[in-house]
User: Fold this.
Amino acid sequence: MSLLALCAANAQWRLGVEGGVSLNWHLQDFGYASTMENKVLAGGTAMISTQYNFTKWIGLRADLGWAQRNYSLQRTTEFKGTDDNSHPAIFRSDYSRHYLMFPVTASFSFGGEKVRGYVDLGAFVGGWLGGSMQNSEYYNGKLTDGSVNKYTYEFDNRRDVRVDAGLVGRIGIIFDVYDNLYMNIEMVDYWGMVNSHKTGSQYVKQNAYDNTMSFQIGIGYTFK
Assistant:
């Protein structure tokens, strides 16, 4: 009974908004295609965050928002130039993909009254919202004139998987600003565990998973 009373006395509910930058690793097995690789691309994030703290140290957090999980597919080869020497040529396709993200985590915090650190662990579900693609060519380190083409990246049920899910981890710092207002800075890692390719189809043969890391800053209000 005393434990329940202690939890009730220290219970808090927080509501906030966050935004930041995302970096996505599209981990794809290319097999023998040694000239192809995926590069990290930056994107954006925007989240609504809510958290219920049972005590000063333990809480339950749920976020809902948007995150870009971008990547650049690059194929490197060599062409002979006018000087009869071989020069590297890169064919690049930049994919901008928008996801609805819903992470739920247990939150463990530590520190003082005004500034506290926290570590969160849990799981997430993500859903495809849309995307775009830009193709370009680079010859001898320079962008080829007229080679940039932009397209809407249409979801293809024969090739793509709409839903992702996996584990999520978060570390951050939260500090009081004024009265019940707070600010927080955090790093979040979404480790996708669902193959984003339908490898059983004739359109794609390689497995691919997304690992997305975001760096966010937020502001919110604590209801005591």
